[in-house]
Amino acid sequence: MRLAPQPSAQPLRLIVLLLLSTGVITSPVLSSGCPDRCVCDDQLVVQCAGQHLTTFPVNLPLATRQLIISNNQSTFGNLRKLAYLDLSFNTLIRIEDRTFGPLTSLVMLRMTDNPGLSEIHPDAFAENAALQVLDVSRNNLTVLNITSLIALPALRSVGLSGNPWSCECDNEDLCLWPMLILNKGCLTKRW
């Protein structure tokens, strides 16, 4: 008894890959709920950098873990599961009271290279207990109230370099705080 050869699934896989790569069909993981002008991947990353956005991207996948909106002019909304936010290379001027409050799962926040950013409200991070990495390098900050940073239990790394820090007595706490923390081995040095 001789059996007929079984058809291989290989040609079908190649056709599906070809259709996906040419955009004729899209993967629901990659495209379902992805905002216009953004790219979403199966790692729950939404990449919207440099898209000249003026409003917060809509239609974000519900499971979004990383949202990259650097080099835009946008605002953001209530994303409780968001873990990584990059607001670098924007036109930020001031960070208001509890700005990041809705982002309760935020672990890493990058706000670098915003030449107009000169003020961060003392309670800007008051509701971000999960925050581990904060990078505010290369802005226009002259003072920073460390009360909000001291209150963050998970904070492990702070980037402060490239700011025109004031050496006035009002800013003495900021100047002394990193040295005290480094001596305890609780924070990485990045300034």
TrEMBL record:
Pfam families (UniProt xref): LRR_8
Name listed for the protein in its UniProt record: Si:dkey-52j6.3
Organism: Seriola lalandi dorsalis
InterPro entries: Leu-rich_rpt, LRR_dom_sf, LRR_TM_domain-containing, LRRNT
Signal peptide: 1-26
Superkingdom per UniProt: Eukaryota
PROSITE patterns xrefs: PROKAR_LIPOPROTEIN (PS51257)
Domain LRRNT as annotated: residue spans: 33-66
Organism lineage: Eukaryota, Metazoa, Chordata, Craniata, Vertebrata
Alphabetized UniProt keyword annotations: Leucine-rich repeat, Repeat, Signal
A GO cellular-component term linked to this record: plasma membrane
Lipid biosynthesis among keywords: no
